UniProtKB/TrEMBL annotation:
It comes from Plebeiibacterium marinum. It comes from the Bacteria. Keywords: Glycoprotein, Signal. Pfam families: DPPIV_N, Peptidase_S9. Residues 1-18 form the signal peptide. InterPro entries: AB_hydrolase_fold, Peptidase_S9_cat, Peptidase_S9B_N, Serine_Prot_S9B/DPPIV. This is S9 family peptidase. Residues 527-727 form the Peptidase S9 prolyl oligopeptidase catalytic domain. The keyword Glycoprotein applies. One of its GO terms (molecular function) is serine-type peptidase activity.
């Protein structure tokens, strides 16, 4: 039986006559009309009762959590004599609150890694010095005692001793596209989601780092043209070429090792880890001197080992192993926490079918499971050892919502710290005395509020009331949540935005929007005013459905797509299209589907599998053959193509070109270092040979995000025009 639950999601103002404007593409892409205001990025100080913010790019100010009043200005470019910089982009304050590490002239390398010019500022003396001369630096970080800074330059690790104004070069073998020390390679950075591969020991006597040998990793390259926004004048007549090491599914990865540099002795030891094809995506020091935690995943990512290395002997031993029938999510790497008393580690994973918090001794013996239930922990914030409480985010109430909770170390107390219905996330101060809660739902723009650790409200930092007033001046179609049950008896979540001036007697065209990737979610009770509102003003019904494989509904729902990415998700989207087409106010002959990246992969797949259900599909930067994508992501869900050729080949659009129906518009950035333009080029060749007509557009010099200058405006105008013409 099909059923629909409807919630009016966007607040309808009392003064409806004031709503005279409709959402334009310019509002969404040029003017930032509906952009929510945040708060100045705050950073908790070591005392846990003060925080700092960067203001105007020139000042770092200190505030009290309790009152919100400014206590001091710690850094002000205007008050620094002969200051070599005019603007800073971010900063770090050392543990003794005596020095600040600032950087400027940021130059992005990949999505998360960047180079910049770093400077060390002495707060008392008001003196600023460059961290290092010459080339830009990466991954700079204070030692725990605040007296040194580690950093990477030209793929080598360095240590700067502030007191003596001396620089020590720890490694000397760094080389582009060959050896990387202290920062991750492309695939680690992208798929293990971090940008720094160094770690200081708690007592500041040792620096651990990961070495990546990507000598045997194959290169990928693409042309770079002059272009604009930015302009590369050096390529005005002859295009340049960008090349980097990119391991595709089944191909050779970088060889990784963990090394530890002893500061006083100036000696380096390589930790003894048995040889094999594995990943070492994190290193984390325990509280015991000379004991380094090394987080290890096998190549298939279905076995996790926690190794503890003795840095004196270099021997690394496994104290804990977790195996999974499918795969282990990357979140386990971020959430694993060693307690400060040296007794325990905290591990968050799916051991009973749902993502929960587990407590272990340092010897790897399980103490207890701290959270239980048919719901997922979706984020872990940390362990407050004074209060014996652990803080986390979960989807207890609904998979489409989030709340913040605390659970005691004995598991006997578990209570909610937030109250409103919607999406909550927390940013705790050092020591967990306070947290900033970010809340929104579909009728409430993001609200930032300060609370005590018990959840008691202190004050509002930003309520985005002005944005709510702005929205009230527009004709906005409310977002309505629904569920429907597929022919296989699976209930799926969705939302729809109906056309303005909706009339149940009319038949409207439908555009389905989705992402559909593993553990992702698009159907969430959170604030958003996007392209769907423009399309609603143009007479479209826009709908979104989260298929099987998406998040916050337990392991069975999330991992049923294992070894066959795209098969189940596209089937669910096709069933969703049938359901939407059955509604008495939709035109079943005019249903379209669009998506970006994984969502683009879905669009291509659906047009080849749905036997004409979709009239139009738009695929932006799609994967068209899983053999083209990177090793870490693809093999996590599909294993190697050598082991699972059927799973790869039967579910890649490039092998379904003969069955394409409807009109497909494929769009790609030609400098996409993530989902390579190769996916589109090879796919359209198959469409051509199958005599399938399609439309295509390529953006020069644009990466996976397709932005810069007028690019986003052009993209959405083009897609809107395409829908008007074809749907």
């Amino acid at each position: 039986m099909k059923k629909i639950f409807v919630f009016l999601a966007l607040l309808i103002p009392l003064n409806t006559f004031a709503q005279t404007k409709t959402v334009s593409l310019e509002d969404l892409n040029k003017f930032g009309t509906f952009a929510a205001r945040g708060i100045n990025k705050s950073k908790s100080m070591a005392d846990g009762i003060h925080y700092t913010t960067l203001e105007k790019g020139t000042q770092i100010n200190k505030y009290a959590y309790s009152s919100g009043k400014k206590v001091a200005t710690l850094f002000d470019i205007a008050n620094i004599k002969d200051c070599p910089i005019q603007h800073i982009q971010d900063y770090e304050i050392n543990s003794t609150n005596t020095k600040i590490l600032v950087y400027t002239n940021q130059e992005m390398v990949y999505r998360r890694t960047f180079k910049a010019n770093f400077f060390v500022y002495d707060i008392k003396r008001k003196e600023i010095k460059p961290l290092s001369e010459g080339d830009k630096q990466q991954a700079a970080e204070f030692s725990p005692d605040g007296e040194m800074v580690s950093f990477v330059k030209n793929n080598d690790v360095y240590i700067y001793k502030i007191k003596f104004d001396t620089e020590t070069r720890v490694t000397k073998d760094g080389e582009f596209n060959k050896i990387i020390n202290g920062v991750p390679d492309w695939v680690y950075e992208e798929e293990f989601e971090y940008n720094k591969a160094t770690a200081w020991s708690p007592n500041s006597t040792e620096l651990a780092y990961v070495r990546f040998d990507e000598t045997n990793v194959k290169k990928f390259s693409f042309p770079v043209y002059k272009g604009s926004n930015p302009t590369h004048n050096e390529y005005a007549l002859y295009p340049g070429e960008y090349n980097f090491k990119y391991p595709k599914a089944g191909e050779e990865n970088a060889k990784v090792s963990v090394k530890v540099f002893h500061i006083k002795n100036r000696t380096t030891k390589t930790m003894k880890i048995e040889e094999g094809d594995y990943y070492l995506p994190r290193i984390k020091w325990t509280q015991e001197p000379g004991k380094l935690g090394i987080l290890k995943l096998n190549r298939l990512q279905n076995q996790f080992d926690l190794l503890i290395a003795n840095t004196a002997t270099a021997i690394a031993q496994s104290v804990f192993t977790h195996r999974n029938d499918y795969y282990l999510d990357v979140e386990i790497l971020n959430d694993l926490t060693f307690s400060n008393d040296g007794k325990y580690f905290i591990y968050v994973s799916e051991m009973d079918g749902y993502n929960h918090i587990h407590l272990y001794t340092m010897a790897g013996m399980k103490v207890r499971q701290l959270t239980k239930g048919e719901w997922d922990v979706t984020d872990f914030y940390g362990y407050d050892e004074n209060k014996k409480l652990l803080y986390y985010q979960a989807a207890k109430v609904s998979s489409t919502q989030r709340e913040v909770y605390a659970v005691s170390i004995d598991g006997k107390k578990d209570y909610k710290l937030t109250s409103k219905t919607g999406m909550h996330s927390a940013d705790f101060s050092t020591g967990f005395k306070y947290f900033i809660n970010t809340f929104s739902n579909t009728s409430t723009p993001p609200q930032y509020t300060l609370h005590t650790q018990s959840g008691k409200y202190i004050r509002t930092l930003q309520d985005n009331a002005s944005l709510k007033e702005t929205v009230s001046q527009f004709r906005i179609s409310p977002k309505e949540f629904f569920t429907f049950t597929t022919s296989q008896g699976v209930e799926l979540n969705g939302w729809m935005v109906k056309p303005l001036d909706f009339d149940t007697n009319n038949k409207y065209p439908v555009l389905m929007t989705q992402y559909s990737g593993p553990n992702s979610q698009e159907v969430l009770d959170e604030w958003s005013v996007g392209w769907e509102q423009y399309l609603a003003s143009q007479g479209y019904l826009v709908a979104c459905i989260d298929p099987r494989g998406t998040g916050a509904r337990g392991e069975e729902f999330r991992k049923c797509t294992y070894m066959k990415l795209g098969q189940i998700e596209s089937n669910d989207q096709i069933e969703g299209a049938r359901y939407l087409g059955s509604l008495n106010y939709t035109d079943a002959s005019r249903i379209g589907i669009w998506g970006w990246s994984y969502g683009g992969f879905m669009s291509c797949s659906c047009l080849s599998k749905a036997n004409g259900i979709f009239k139009v599909g738009i695929a932006v930067a799609p994967v068209t053959n899983w053999r083209y994508y990177d090793s870490v992501y693809t093999e996590r869900f599909m294993r190697k193509p050598q082991e699972n050729p059927k799973g790869y080949d039967e579910n890649s659009p490039i092998n379904m070109a003969d069955n394409l129906t409807g009109r497909l518009f494929i769009i790609h950035g030609m400098a996409d270092d993530n989902v390579h333009f190769q996916n589109t080029v090879e796919y359209i060749e198959q469409l051509i040979q199958a005599n399938k007509q399609f439309d295509m557009f390529a953006y020069p010099n644009r990466n996976h995000g397709i932005y810069g200058g007028n690019t986003r405006m052009h993209l959405y105008q083009m897609m809107s025009d395409y829908l008007k013409k074809n749907l």
